[in-house]
Design goal:
CATH topology of one domain: Rossmann fold
Radius of gyration: 29 Å
Number of helices: 21
Main location: nucleus
CATH superfamily of one domain: Vaccinia Virus protein VP39
Keywords: Methyltransferase, Nucleus, RNA-binding, S-adenosyl-L-methionine, Transferase, tRNA processing, tRNA-binding
Structural class: alpha+beta
Subcellular location: Nucleus
Protein name: tRNA (cytosine(34)-C(5))-methyltransferase
CATH architecture of one domain: 3-Layer(aba) Sandwich
Strand content: 15-25%
Helix content: 25-40%
Enzyme class: transferase
Oligomer: single chain
Length: 688
């Protein structure tokens, strides 16, 4: 949304095009080489560090060499999650086990899906097969289709199991101000968004999440992830987390965050040069944390230099302002080790050092004093036993380290800044009073404005509606919007020309955007809510966008609503083609009567049964009624209704075989066959 790019500036696509210029046409893609999953130095290093008991070490290494099982979780705040969970357990897993029966004869019990016991409400599941195997197995094509469609529609997220832990330990509530400092690719940010909305009782949360990443390209992966959840309470920024600037609220006060996630960059096996980067991010996070707030520090590394050493350094410098708190009790059923209390840094040639004094002079610029453990006489005050170390063999997962910190008071250097500010104001006051001026006239000299670092593409501005915006009058009249709706929460990404899309954000996000445009690079915010749909016969030139429906549904009047029966909805969901929309005379009498009363254009389709309520954007044509939604949303709703999905459950292996057969036929000089849906397109072209 809102990227001001030159034409054809997609670097990934351009690189592929450039590479193809130099490839022979008959060149076939070589298969990936199998990764060698052994490293003698790695094994020596971690055995010496005693990251796990010696009798478990071989199991630890074996787990590292094995493929990770596929895991996914259901989106918690969506009203349909309960129905979807029933379908997953009663239908999807039955088909999954049936597909595995021939592949793993005699291992049916071992292959059963496992609920992750520490994740709330049975919403997270582990399949006893890797993502790669799911993609490659024809017998599991329905499972693969389910994972793709439901992920795209935002109803599930495919995420490694231990990666789900840090957001859970944040314990986010709907009023919390949250920031994810190193957010890309966005799965943890998605969890924070879910937590904000789960606790909001269907209303727009007062809290929000700022999702940041230093890599400009990865920020757009983050946009893609966050957009699936259609939350107006999310803002994506692009800056160095270790130097994240102060953000200001509407009262020009520095924003302090209630919840901070510092899932910092890590090596995966540990390098000492990362310690400084990780510490800098953790320290900045602590500065931005509200007193009484919570920060979760995490890595996917098992190296104590990147984990406990960072925490010790931060706790030591915080001098009692920060505390590592116990959180393992929140993860019932998860196996893990407590944090390490002793480790030995090593040189590249694996020479280990017990203390900084043992380090040769020439290595002291690489092996710093800060990465050594505290003296054993002081170790208790660091509460390292409260840190969580998840090892691969304990739960059949990746490795992870998590520490939960709470802020008890201002950090020592924060207090120093406050003292200096008070002294400075007093000095200025005294000087000016000596000149006959009163302190009420005194203002501190303006700070020199820092130049905003541009990490990538130049972003379009965020342009908010004014209270008397002319365009809003059109929306309000046509959709009978309530007076409670605040039009100043609507925005566009263009200053001049026709407004194509209108986005909606929460009041809290709006104020951050307005006050901080020059402080940090703003990438994306807001949910598409209205989209231009130029039509000469239309009373309102903007249709509702399904993405934003759940945020403004409560403000839209009854005049643009149509209540449908189950068969009507299934007919609409199975016919998304705008060229051949469902004819209204084929629908129920109730829908036909409502069609007569409502004017042409965008509307809301409403369906309700005992424990299921669905709302979607529709379009009322002269003689038609259709759903105006994405195909993956349609598949999701059909699944919830228990309807036939065979139209969308395409077997990619059969399709590939057909394409190859058609290619062979074509090479032999036979007449090429036109697929059925292409034949329809040809007929339509001829008719026109």
């Amino acid at each position: 949304m809102g990227r001001n790019r030159k034409k054809n500036s997609n670097h990934f696509a351009q690189r592929r095009r450039d590479n193809k210029k130099f490839e022979p046409y008959d060149k076939k893609a070589e298969p990936y080489k199998e990764i060698v999953r052994e490293n003698e130095d790695f094994e020596t290093y971690y055995k010496h560090q005693k990251v796990c008991p010696e009798e478990e070490y071989e199991n630890f290494l074996a787990a590292l060499r094995a493929d990770l099982p596929a895991t996914f979780r259901l989106t918690a705040f969506k009203g349909e999650s309960k129905r979807l969970l029933e379908i997953v357990k009663e239908k999807l897993f039955v088909d999954y086990l049936s597909g595995l029966k021939d592949l793993n004869e005699g291992k049916e019990e071992e292959m059963k899906p496992k609920n992750l016991p520490w994740y709330p409400n049975e919403l997270a599941w582990e399949l006893q097969i890797s993502r790669k195997d799911i993609r490659r197995s024809e017998k599991l094509f329905k499972l693969h289709n389910f994972l793709i469609a439901e992920t795209k529609s935002g109803n599930i997220s495919r995420q490694e199991a231990v990666s789900m832990i840090p957001p859970l330990l944040l314990n986010v509530k709907s009023h919390h101000k949250c920031i994810d400092l190193c957010a890309s690719p966005g799965s943890k940010t998605s969890q924070i968004i879910e937590a904000l909305h789960s606790d909001a009782s269907g209303k727009i949360p007062k809290g929000y999440v700022i999702a940041n990443d230093i890599d400009n390209k990865r920020c757009y992966m983050l946009v893609h992830q966050a957009k699936r959840l259609n939350s107006p309470c999310c803002l994506i920024t692009n800056t160095d987390a270790g130097r994240f600037p102060n953000l200001y609220n509407n009262e020009n006060k520095i924003i302090k965050f209630d919840r901070i996630l510092a899932d910092v960059p890590c090596s995966g096996d540990g390098t000492m040069r990362l310690h400084g980067i990780q510490y800098r991010i953790a320290r900045r996070g602590a500065e931005m944390l509200e007193i009484g707030g919570r920060m979760v520090y995490s890595t996917c590394s098992i190296n104590p230099i990147e984990n406990e050493a960072v925490i010790c350094r931060l706790i030591r410098e915080a001098a009692g302002s920060l505390e590592v708190v116990e959180a393992g009790s929140l993860l019932k059923g998860l196996k893990y080790n407590p944090g390490m209390t002793y480790w030995e840094p090593a040189s590249k040639d694996l020479k280990f050092y017990k203390s900084f004094d043992d380090v040769p002079t020439e290595l002291k610029t690489i092996i710093h004093k800060e990465i050594f453990p505290p003296p054993q006489s002081e170790i208790e005050k660091y509460n390292l036993q409260h840190c969580i170390r998840v090892l691969p063999h304990q739960n059949n997962t990746g490795a992870f380290f998590i520490a939960v910190l709470e802020k008890r008071s201002k950090l020592p250097w924060e207090k120093k800044v406050d003292e200096n500010a008070i002294e400075s104001k007093a000095r200025i006051a005294a000087e000016n009073n000596g000149n006959g001026e009163t302190t009420s006239q005194i203002e501190p000299p303006p700070k020199k404005k820092k130049k905003l670092i541009n990490y990538g593409f130049r972003e379009d501005p965020f342009v908010f509606f004014t209270p008397d915006e002319e365009l809003y009058t059109t929306f309000k009249t046509f959709y009978k919007l309530s007076d409670d709706f605040d039009p100043t929460c609507l925005l566009t990404r263009c200053l001049v020309g026709k407004k194509k899309n209108i986005y909606f954000c929460s009041p809290e996000i709006r104020e951050i955007l307005r006050k901080n445009e020059d402080n940090v690079k703003l990438i994306n915010s807001g949910v598409k809510t209205f989209s231009r749909c130029d039509n000469k016969n239309m009373e309102c030139q903007f249709r509702l966008a399904h993405e934003g429906l759940y945020n403004i549904d409560q403000f839209i009047g009854s005049e643009r609503r149509v209540h449908v029966e189950r068969d009507d909805l299934i007919r609409m969901l199975n016919n998304l083609n705008p060229i051949e929309p469902p004819m209204v005379h084929l629908m129920s009498e109730s829908v036909q009567k409502q069609h007569e009363k409502i004017g042409s254009g965008s509307c809301i389709i409403h369906y309700k049964e005992d424990d299921l309520e669905l709302r979607l954007v529709g379009w009322r044509g002269n003689k038609t009624f259709r759903a105006y939604i994405d195909v993956n949303d349609s598949i999701h709703m059909l699944r919830l209704l228990g309807a036939d999905l065979s139209k969308y459950d395409v077997n990619k292996f059969e399709e590939k075989a057909k394409r190859e057969q058609a290619l062979k036929t074509d090479e032999n000089g036979a007449e090429e066959e036109i697929p059925m849906d292409e034949e329809k397109d040809e007929e339509l072209k001829n008719e026109n």
